[in-house]
Amino acid sequence: MPAFTFEKISPPVRRGPAATPPKKPRGLISQMIDRFAERRARRALQDQAVMRRDEKPAE
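and the corresponding structure tokens:
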């Protein structure tokens, strides 16, 4: 009979992806900043379109 034995170590158990926590509703300040940023981006696109229209073709 052997004087000592080794424990058989089983491989780690594979688990499914962790459940994502529910999203919190965004705060009022965050919503206001989003609105301002969206308007500013739209205005920048409109300004670029106006500038392109105003450019004269090279002669």
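(Above: one complete record from the training split.) The mean pLDDT is 82.
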